[in-house]
Amino acid sequence: MTDNLLLSAARNSNYYTPEHEQFRDTVRDFVAREITPHVNAWDEAGEFPRELYRKAAEVGLLGVGYPEEYGGTPADVFYQLIIPEEVARAGCGGVSASLFSHTIGTPPILHAGSDELKARVLPDILAGRKISALCITESGGGSDVASLRTTAVRDGDHYVVNGEKTFITSGMRADWFTVAVRTNPEVKGAGGVSLLLIPGDTPGITRTKLDKMGWWASDTAHLRFENVRVPVGHLLGVENEGFRIIMRNFNSERLFMAAGAYGFAKVCFADALDWARERKTFGLPLVERQVIRHKLVDMAMKIESVRCMIEDLAWRVQQKFGDPRLLVAQTAMLKNLAMQTMQFCADEAVQILGGMGFMRGTRPERIYREVKVNMIGGGSVEIMKDLAAKQLQL
């Protein structure tokens, strides 16, 4: 990124230690070496090499925050926030979405799976040998998780799963699916929902590739489950009590999505500033035009607001500080603020770059077409507002 006071400012030592910064350097070097040179080709190809999972695992990126017994590295939330922020420097959300799909697929396994299941499944995922995906969304449900219709009926020592899931990140090549199912069809709502861990090679699973506006390098699939038999031992948590696990998972996902959006917004600011300094109109650099400087200041103002909210909320979550309802509300509001900031900065960067901003291959162009998936995935802007209002008892 360009040399700029905002982008090179020292990190707050109340949150980040020298060890955090050493880890940031590791992630940054990995992104510069293994991702950035290839993102255009991977975007056009619609995928990235599976080998990238193993490479990311070798430098410790996949196991951050997981116990050592499964091949992970115990770490606080700030280590985990560094990863999406730094990977965003490549300007390709599709790579980040699929490469780290385990960050939403495996927490339910870690927190609610049996010891045997965790020992059998997690080490391969954290080593990059296997891929994990989360399967919640259905065609008619979206953010309304409690209305899901995929069923799991007990048959001896197995569940028989029938239904469909859609918009599943890493859905085409995942080895493990963490799937939300309805185990009690008599209960219409959150009460009858459970989570099952389903091997990707189980008979009866059909995968269909989906084409998207953005995230081209991320494989996204529609899944169909037809009489898929899953061992009872693959139940995560208690039957009919999976909804709470799903909600806990969503809160973590939203925090890390916000960190990624913050990173993408900084990329847009950096590229817009570089262009404004280099591009001349009527004999002067664009940055000498007041209207352009004001655009850049507006971008910087929003970026700084997101940074402050991310760091404060991460500290509160880590310390379990405050009413849990307030933390949920702040997470929802942060996700919206971060996504709207990403949207604003992407739009302004493309505008400042002009025709070049519309060309395939520039970072603002890629980020611009990936804005909407961030404003929808993990809970839409509208749902987040309602969630925050409910938690704040408005």
UniProtKB/TrEMBL annotation:
Cofactor: FAD
Active site: D25, E34
Superkingdom to which the source organism belongs: Bacteria
Pfam families the record matches: Acyl-CoA_dh_1, Acyl-CoA_dh_M, Acyl-CoA_dh_N
GO CC annotation: cytoplasm
Acyl-CoA oxidase/dehydrogenase middle domain mapped to chain residues: 133-228
Record carries keyword Hydrolase: yes
Family membership noted in the UniProt record: Belongs to the acyl-CoA dehydrogenase family. Belongs to the glycosyl hydrolase 9 (cellulase E) family.
Protein name, UniProt field: Acyl-CoA dehydrogenase
